[in-house]
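User: For a benchmark we're assembling, each entry needs the component sequences followed by a predicted structure for the full assembly. Here are entry 17's components. Please fill in the structure.
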Amino acid sequence: MANTRGAAVKYDSVQKSYDGETLVVKNLNLDIPPGEFLTMLGPSGSGKTTCLMMLAGFEPATHGEIYLNDRPINNVPPHKRGIGMVFQNYALFPHMTVAENLAFPLQVRGVGKAEQQDKVKRALEMVELGAFGNRRPAQLSGGQQQRVAVARALVFDPELVLMDEPLGALDKQLREQMQYEIKHIHENLGVTVVYVTHDQTEALTMSDRVAVFNDGVIQQLSTPDDLYEDPQNSFVAQFIGENNKLNGKVVEINGSECLVEIDDGTKLKADKVNVAAVGDRTTLSLRPERVEFDTVDTMDNLVNGRIEELIYLGDHIRVRMNVGGNDEFIVKVRNRGEKRKLAVGETVRVGWALNDCKALDAVV
Amino acid sequence: MSDTHAGEVLTTQDGKPLKVALAKALRREKLRALALIAPLLIFVLLTFVAPIVDMLFRSVENGIVEETLPKTVVALQEWDPTSGTVPDEAVFVALYDDMAVAVEEKTHTRLGSRLNYEASGISSLFRKTGRGIKRMDEAGPFKEQFIDLDKDWGTVETWQVLKRFSPRYTPGYFLNAFDAQQTANGIELKPEDERIYMYLFGRTLFLSVAITVSCLLLGYPIAYLLSALPLRSSNLLMILVLLPFWTSLLVRTSAWKVLLQQQGVINDFLVWTGIISDAGRLVMINNQTGTIIAMTHILLPFMILPLYSVMKTISPSYVRAAKSLGANDWTAFWRVYFPQTIPGIGAGAVLVFILSIGYYITPELVGGTSGIFISNRIAYHISSSLNWGLGAALGTLLLVAVLVLFVVYDKIVGIDNVKLG
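Assistant: Structure for entry 17:
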């Protein structure tokens, strides 16, 4: 973000209800500094798209105020907000050519003909579609349409660009490619981007910060690696990446550590994240790749598990085990051409470090 | 597409040419499909296409002169209508023979009324001749006797009409439909005060355009509302739109009579509120206004439904995108939404226009004299004046006019741009 020319966005205790009975967005407070790429991530119905629509001006906030560069924008109509937006199905105007689509925001702003052409050309080159100006959107592939939509949202030099699940309609390979392209465009231009998705990989790859939404509330707002390494609650741990759950009860608390007795009686040491007192129910969260088969006695946690299933995936092997009464316990073993063969039905000893095991709020 | 290389013909396993085998395999499917639609096809051919073709054919058919006066027609071939003299005795001999047979069979009056369409007075000439022919001297000479019986036989014009309409096919009905007539000097327009059909065609076109435009103006917002409202309310609205379909056309038209007449509900209300004076009651029925109002009401669903089906497919994200790109409400509508509804407008306009151009019952009931259409005139010729030939010619012209407009429309808007659903 060398040349930041983005806008700052601030949600100040924003609430939204459609029917007057339930809140879709419950008291949202969010500060987005200029030039940040912020992703709102969450399952459908979590309120993330509503937040985006309120920022764009298509939905009024029921309560609270949204600020754009410290200016309240609740009463500013969408077309005066100067926010670029990429829609889920691109919303490219089908009766206009690609160049006309791109020229549209410039025309309505009264930009001169020559400058229009110049800007359209530059925008098309930015997304490597220089030769496609005269085509209709329907004549383009999904990925090309996507690029045109991005170019159109950027052609009038907005300080803020909103993207509403823009890659949802693309196949996996194209989606990954576009993720990098959008990320690079953001890095080059320095605009603020608010990106909505339900795809956690997308969120982790592209964002500076991710706001994980559930039930109208931001569950956690942090950088992608923090989100993965230090989930603040069970929902986040479950939603981001793969996760093993072990339910139990806190029996001892030592500063930032705690001792948890899981339901089959095994006692495990864990990082105390979201538990309050001894006797609380808790769910331990453990990433599959942090569990080791080559155990040493000095490891914080050591348990026996029975191998239920082996799935060969080339670069790694997924081992489904029964650990502590949970037979959905997954361990990922890197494929190092090992001599030691695992076999279904075998009982093996596995272990992991205290810091990789998070004691979070209990999942019922 | 072709997989055959330089002269090599692809064959099936048992050596038949592939194309023959394919055609054979497809033929059975085609026959089966044809058998499925055969009942409807035959029904339509027998009850719809055949009568229409037969009716349209009457616009040029003119066998009656040749059938009633066969010898006269042959004899007249020698006569030069531009000579300025009445044909000679030979023609009158033939006429006497033909008339004797015709009077026996009572077909001469039919011929008289047919030729009366072309030149008035001929009907009474034939009637009079029919009555007098028995008293004629069979030995001749006939020329004087015929002229004595009715001096019209001695005028060149009578014979010119006979000669002109003796061929089996005639352009006479069509000329008539164009307000023209065939005279000795060739084709020319009728006198100003006798021209009525071109004017009626013009009025039909004008009123149809007016009805189409008012349907569009009234229907567009409703169609938009239908497509934008949540499902529950839009279903209710849709029922209201379709309600006119479930009511008899006559009931609806009569309702307009009650509403619009000078002592009707609307005038009474306007007088009561003092907007108009009792003396200045509006004339809203039995004229063009009445026709436009009643027909707009009747044809409105035909505009709304195609518009609705097109608007429903336009995602609201287009307008949102336009607004996010900086367009105000009007620009977003005019530059982004409206162009996408053109296929619906096209379909609705074509439908309403074609329906209204041939409409009959409503103009008949509420149109008075100034609001009637060409179709009312066609109906008059079919059922009252019994000049089926002219009725058929007018009908053919109407059909051609619609087809021409259709082609023009295709050139301008493109027929594949029309979407009905």
